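My hope is that you will study the protein record below before we discuss the fold together.
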Amino acid sequence: MAVTLKTISERLGLSQAAVSQILNRKPNDLSSESTRKKVFAMAEELGYKQKFGHKLLRGDRTKTVCILSSQYRLNHEEQIQKLTGCLLELLEQHGYSSYVVTLKDDAHVNLEKVRELCVRGVESFIALGTPVGEMSLYEEIRQNGRELIGYNTCYPHNINVPPRLAQAEIIRFFLRENRPHFKIFLRNSLRKCLRFQGLRDVFPQLDDEELRRRYYINLGEYQTPDVDVLVQIGYEATRRAFEAEPDIEAVSYLSDYYVLGGIRYLVETGRTPGKDVLVAGYNDINAVRFHHFPITSVRHQVDEIAETLVKHIGSAEKCSQTINPEVIIRK
């Protein structure tokens, strides 16, 4: 049987009106902090779920936010897991109810999901990464009078975390350590690749063809979130690179998962990572932070990103902000 306001009020000896004011965080709620804590604790214990239908009919705000994890693979990335956790905690602190939804690689399915969420009373959306069918989703959300803010998306309201400066800093680290013979392991598409732009920034005198010839190793296209597969891709790409040029002095990978495969190859061939070959990745996952070899990586400012996203929910102020990640040098 569904838990009601009456159930909670009877358990605590409070009026239904007082319980309603507390759970809906009404501005005219004059309850003490201890009473509010008891009400929220009882609601959680009993599994009380707010119904937003009556609020929608009255035109009241539901204070409901949906976090759209835009691609299945994002759920396997540690920084996205941390960011989602931080967002949920902050949203609760600010009095929001929240959903977390993983979108598909199908624009129509994603559009139907967003329409359903709007009907449920979701007022604000946070998109983590650009979803498939991005502009149709944006138009649907705006037409319903809802708001959308993104993290690393194409949307007008967006928090951007560009890798360009971080990649350039890693390259300059290699050069400071007198390791000019280095390779950067990236995917096929380089035309708009910000990692490759970091390479351009360090060597503006070289054209793209020369940069590719000297420094670029192709990882192929991203096709799977399977960590073991990514590690194996890193291993094979590293093997091909060192078989062609055995005297490579430093390597920088698209992500830390590829790093793990690269290090396995280096160790198997008698090279010591951090000494014979400097190694750098991206995302600073646990396996890299606590690795017994020193691996340079790039850490996302997750707390700042989450706080900025939540800050701009319901704000009329246009949000277009850059939060640069932090390069963690290890040697």
In short: The CA atoms of residues 102 and 134 lie 14 Å apart. Confidence is low (pLDDT under 50) at residues 53-59. DSSP finds 14 helices and twelve strands in the chain. The radius of gyration is 24 Å.
